[in-house]
C-alpha cells in the first residue's frame, strides 16, 4: 500500500468540509431569526455549490434562510447541498484509497431501482414539516413539546414496511433530541451528527428518494475477511466483510452481509453472539475459517447480501490471511448510492504487513503503524469486546487485516484480525473468532453470563404477559 497517498492533501477537501461545518453551526442557533454569522455560513454553502446544477436553488434558499423566511423547499435545497458536498468528500477519499491500495475502481451497477409513485405522501409531508420546525428552532432551541411532534408521525410510519427506513431514522433522531432537552442547557451539542441526521431524514422523505434497492441473484464462493461489530444499548449488528468469487468466473467483488438483533442492555461482550447466531449461519463459517457456497443469493447494487440461510452451505477451509493476500487485491468494490455517500460510510478492507508499531502510553495506550515511513493511526477503540482480539494483540502484530476509515481529518485503520508470532509460529487472532461459538475460557464465561441474563428477562416477560 502506498501510505504516502493517504497523508497527501486532496484538492478542495478542506474547503468542502468548511462549508459543511459553517452550515452545521448555523443550525445550532436555528434559522428562525438568523444572526450575521449564520447568514455568512449559508452564503458559504451556496458558494460551495455555485458551479453545480444545484446553484440557483441553493442560492435562493440561502438568501431566504438568511432573512428568516425559509420554507420547506428551501430547507430541502440546503440539505441537498450539504449532502452533495459530503458526497464529493466521500468520492475524493474513496478515489485516494483505491489509488493507494491499487485495487480495481468501484463499478456502477447497471440496474437502477424504479422509483415508482410516492407512497404515503401525507406522512412524508408531516415528517418534513417537523424537520423544518427543528431547523428554525435550532439545537439550542429544542424542547420536549417540539421534539414530541415526531411521535405521531413515527407511530403512523412504523407499521408500513415501505416506510420503515425513514421511520426508524426519525424515531432514533427524536429519541436523541428528547434525551438532550432542553437544548438551551446542553454543555456540548453533537453538531455534525445532528446535522447529518437532519439532512438525511429530510431527503429520505422526498418522492423517489428511498426506492426499493435493485437486487440480483448471485451464485459462487464467499470468502470471509472479518466481522465488524456495532453495539448499542438496545441493539447489536454484526457486518461480515468478504470477497465474493462468482461461479461464472467473473471479477471478484467486495461484499457485505449484515445481521442485527434487539438486545437488553445487560447482554454485552461475547454474549452478543447468542442473539445473532440463530439469524445467520455465516457467523459459524467465519469463526471456523471456512468459505460459504452461495446459490442464487440476493445481492444489492451496493454490494450487500440479503442473507438467506437456505441459499448458503458451508464450503471448504478459507484462511482469512490467505484470502487477504490472494483474493483481496483483485476484488472490486460496488459503487455507493448517492444518499449514502458520506465520509463516515468509508470502510475499505486492506491488508498491511511489514510495518513498525508505535504505542503512546501517555495518550491512553494509543497504537499506530509506521507503513513505508508514514504514520497510520489504528482505531483500537473499535475492536469489539465480543472476541479475543485486543489492543495488546494489535500492538504485537506483524500483519493486520482491517477496515480503512476516515475520521476527524485523517485515515484510520480498524483491525479485524492480526497475525502475531508466538513461539516462532504465526498465530492469527480474529475479532469474530467467537461468532460461531468458542472454547476460550473468557468467551465461555461471558456467554454463560449472557445466557443467565436472558433467562431472567424471559421469565420476567412471561410473568408480565400472564398478568
Question: Top keywords for this entry?
Answer:
single chain; 467 residues; alpha+beta; 7-stranded mixed β-sheet; 6-stranded mixed β-sheet; 15 helices; 13 strands; 39% helix; 23% strand; globular
Question: In short, what is this structure?
Answer:
The chain is α+β, with helices and mostly antiparallel strands and 467 residues long. Helix content is 39%, strand content 23%. The N and C termini lie far apart (62 Å).
Averaged pLDDT: 90
Reported for the largest beta sheet, the result is: 7 strands, mixed
Secondary structure: helix percent: 25-40%
Provide the gyration radius in Å: 24 Å
Total helical elements:
15
How many DSSP E strands? 13
Structural class: alpha+beta
Distance between the ends: 62 Å
Report the principal-axis shape. globular
Low-confidence stretches: 110-117
Beta-strand percentage range: 15-25%
Series of H and E elements: HHHHHHHHHHEEEHHEEEHEEEEHEEEH
Account of the 3D structure:
- The protein is α+β, with helices and mostly antiparallel strands and 467 residues long.
- It is built from 15 helices and 13 strands.
- The chain has helices spanning 4-7, 13-29, 36-48, 55-66, 72-101, 121-137, 144-147, 151-157, 164-179, 191-204, 272-276, 282-288, 320-326, 391-395, 441-466, and strands at 215-231, 235-246, 253-262, 290-300, 304-305, 312-317, 348-353, 356-360, 366-371, 374-378, 399-407, 410-422, 425-430.
- Strands 7, 8, 9, 10, 11, 12 and 13 form a seven-stranded mixed β-sheet that branches. Strands 5-3-2-1-4-6 form a six-stranded mixed β-sheet, sandwiched between helices.
- Strand 1 (215-231) and strand 2 form a beta hairpin.
- Helix 2 (13-29) packs antiparallel against helix 5 (72-101), helix 8 runs antiparallel to helix 9 and helix 9 runs antiparallel to helix 10 (191-204).
- The protein is globular, with a radius of gyration of 24 Å.
- Residues 110-117 have low confidence and may be disordered.
Amino acid at each position: 500500500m502506498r501510505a504516502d497517498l493517504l497523508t497527501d492533501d486532496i484538492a478542495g477537501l478542506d474547503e468542502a468540509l468548511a462549508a459543511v461545518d459553517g452550515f452545521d453551526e448555523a443550525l445550532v442557533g436555528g434559522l428562525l431569526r438568523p444572526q450575521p454569522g449564520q447568514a455568512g455560513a449559508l452564503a458559504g454553502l451556496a458558494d460551495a455549490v455555485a458551479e453545480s446544477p444545484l446553484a440557483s436553488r441553493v442560492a435562493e434558499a440561502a438568501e431566504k434562510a438568511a432573512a428568516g423566511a425559509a420554507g420547506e423547499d428551501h430547507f430541502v435545497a440546503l440539505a441537498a447541498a450539504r449532502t452533495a458536498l459530503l458526497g464529493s468528500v466521500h468520492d475524493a477519499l474513496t478515489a485516494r484509497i483505491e489509488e493507494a491500495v491499487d485495487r480495481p475502481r468501484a463499478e456502477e451497477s447497471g440496474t437502477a431501482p424504479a422509483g415508482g409513485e410516492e407512497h404515503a405522501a401525507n406522512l412524508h409531508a408531516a415528517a418534513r414539516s417537523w424537520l423544518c420546525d427543528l431547523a428554525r428552532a435550532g439545537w439550542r432551541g429544542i424542547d420536549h413539546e417540539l421534539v414530541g411532534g415526531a411521535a405521531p408521525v413515527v407511530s403512523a410510519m412504523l407499521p408500513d414496511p415501505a416506510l420503515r427506513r425513514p421511520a426508524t431514522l426519525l424515531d432514533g433522531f427524536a429519541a436523541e433530541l428528547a434525551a438532550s432537552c432542553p437544548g438551551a442547557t446542553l454543555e456540548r451539542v453533537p453538531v455534525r451528527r445532528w446535522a447529518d441526521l437532519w439532512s438525511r431524514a429530510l431527503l429520505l422523505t422526498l418522492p423517489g428518494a428511498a426506492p426499493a434497492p435493485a437486487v440480483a441473484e448471485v451464485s459462487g464462493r464467499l470468502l470471509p475477511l472479518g466481522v465488524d461489530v456495532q453495539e448499542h444499548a438496545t441493539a447489536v449488528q454484526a457486518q461480515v466483510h468478504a470477497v465474493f468469487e462468482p461461479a461464472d468466473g467473473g471479477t471478484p467483488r467486495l461484499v457485505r452481509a449484515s445481521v442485527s438483533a434487539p438486545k437488553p442492555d445487560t447482554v454485552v461482550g461475547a454474549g452478543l453472539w447468542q442473539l445473532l447466531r440463530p439469524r445467520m449461519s455465516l457467523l459459524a463459517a467465519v469463526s471456523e475459517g471456512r468459505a460459504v457456497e452461495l446459490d442464487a443469493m440476493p445481492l444489492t447494487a451496493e454490494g450487500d447480501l440479503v442473507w438467506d440461510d437456505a441459499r448458503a452451505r458451508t464450503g471448504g477451509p478459507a484462511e482469512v490471511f490467505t484470502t487477504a493476500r490472494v483474493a483481496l487485491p483483485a476484488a472490486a468494490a460496488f459503487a455507493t448510492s448517492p444518499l449514502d455517500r458520506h465520509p463516515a460510510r468509508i470502510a475499505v478492507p486492506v491488508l498491511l504487513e511489514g510495518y513498525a508499531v508505535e504505542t503512546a502510553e501517555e495518550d491512553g495506550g494509543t497504537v499506530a503503524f509506521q507503513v513505508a515511513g508514514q504514520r497510520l493511526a489504528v482505531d483500537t477503540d473499535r475492536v469489539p469486546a465480543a472476541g479475543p482480539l485486543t489492543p495488546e494483540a494489535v500492538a504485537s502484530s506483524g500483519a493486520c487485516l482491517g477496515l480503512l476509515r476516515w475520521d476527524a481529518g485523517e485515515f484510520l485503520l480498524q483491525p479485524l484480525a492480526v497475525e502475531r508470532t508466538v513461539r516462532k509460529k504465526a498465530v492469527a487472532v480474529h475479532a469474530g473468532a467467537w461468532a460461531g461459538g468458542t472454547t476460550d475460557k473468557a468467551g465461555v464465561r461471558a456467554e454463560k453470563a449472557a445466557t443467565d441474563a436472558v433467562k431472567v428477562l424471559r421469565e420476567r416477560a412471561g410473568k408480565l404477559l400472564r398478568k
